[in-house]
Write a structure and sequence with these properties.
heterodimer, A: mainly alpha, 2 helices, B: mainly alpha, Butyryl-CoA Dehydrogenase, subunit A, domain 3, two-stranded antiparallel sheet, 9 helices, 2% strand, binds zinc ion
Chain lengths: 92, 221
């Protein structure tokens, strides 16, 4: 049997299933992140509009909010990096 | 699941038949790439998803996306390790015109000619080292990125692109056979949109897949 027609091993087929699951979850979580973040940001700005306070105070609140978002992003990366340890073995 | 659509089974079958007949008529790899590069997971809002969110730090955004790209490429290349061997790929290349020698300036100070699997192993290990180095990719809240972070990310992305170049040029047939081309294309699209949005990889580095990329971008425009 030539290499081109040889059936993939069970191991390869399992890797394909794993790859699909994880790629789908990576991509969809990135898309979800951006969408939900946009909503959160809009909600924040809306809330601030309703409140009677000066611009400086509003800016401060927004900056604090952006900071929180940044930390969330960093946390998500931390988890991702940890996950890589098992991933790299897939390559070998 | 956030996907808007699924790759059509029917279409895919047609493509496979088309591929077979092309193969018999000689090497028309370029055309094949165009054919395959159209199947994706239907994640149409990817272009939006790569944009810098309002108020976000650009470095933080590059960091999280770079880790995504590394993960995606590890998973994709992982499925063809059985087929990408010293014998099948004695040199690291992306089509007949582009060959790569490994050099990282630390462990390999001179260009090192090696097989594709060895090259990709060196490349992925190198990227992993960068990503896991907290001095480059800080993990504690409030710790800043190094001043040359953008330059480091550019080098990482330039190198990661070569794995796509190799997979598309030399293993697309197998990836299609494994029914994984939609996943490959979707990840590649994620990668390309990102590097185009922020101009992180030079055009000449992208040359091995220029047609594929142009085709992908025009289809989406
Ligand atoms: Zn190979």
């Amino acid at each position: 049997m030539s290499n081109a027609t040889k059936q993939p091993t069970k191991e390869t087929l399992e890797k394909v299933q794993q790859m699909k699951k994880r790629v789908e979850s990576t991509i969809s979580s990135r898309i979800n992140h951006v969408n939900q973040r946009r909503l959160r940001s809009l909600r924040m700005q809306h809330k601030l509009k309703e409140h009677d306070m000066d611009e400086a105070k509003k800016n401060e609140i927004m900056n604090q909010y952006y900071n929180e978002e940044r930390n969330l992003l960093r946390d998500s990366r931390k988890k991702l990096s940890l996950r890589d340890f098992t991933l790299v073995k897939v390559i070998g | 699941m956030a996907y808007n659509g699924q790759p059509s089974k029917k279409k895919k079958k047609k493509k496979k038949d088309h591929y077979k007949s092309q193969k018999e008529h000689g090497n028309k790899k370029r055309m094949e790439l165009h054919e395959y590069a159209t199947a994706t997971l239907g994640a149409g809002n990817m272009r939006e998803a790569v944009r810098l969110p309002k108020g976000e730090d650009f470095n933080e955004w590059m960091a999280v996306n770079t880790v995504d790209f590394f993960n995606e490429i590890s998973l994709l290349y992982g499925i063809i390790t059985e087929y990408c061997t010293k014998a099948s790929c004695p040199v690291m290349s992306a089509g007949p015109k582009y060959e790569y020698l490994w050099m990282d300036g630390v462990k390999y100070k001179k260009p090192h000619k090696c097989s594709a699997p060895e090259y990709i192993d060196l490349l992925m290990s190198w990227v992993e080292e960068q990503i896991n180095d907290a001095r480059i990719f800080p993990i504690e809240d409030g710790v800043p990125f190094p001043k040359n972070f953008r330059q480091i990310v550019k080098t990482i992305l330039k190198r990661l692109f070569r794995v796509y170049g190799h997979m598309y040029h030399h293993h697309i047939q197998k990836i299609v056979q494994l029914d994984a081309e939609a996943h490959l294309n979707t990840c590649f699209k994620h990668f390309i949109y990102f590097i185009k949005e922020f101009r992180l990889v030079d055009e000449r580095e992208l040359a091995p897949l220029a047609d594929t990329i142009n085709n992908m971008l025009t289809k989406d425009a």
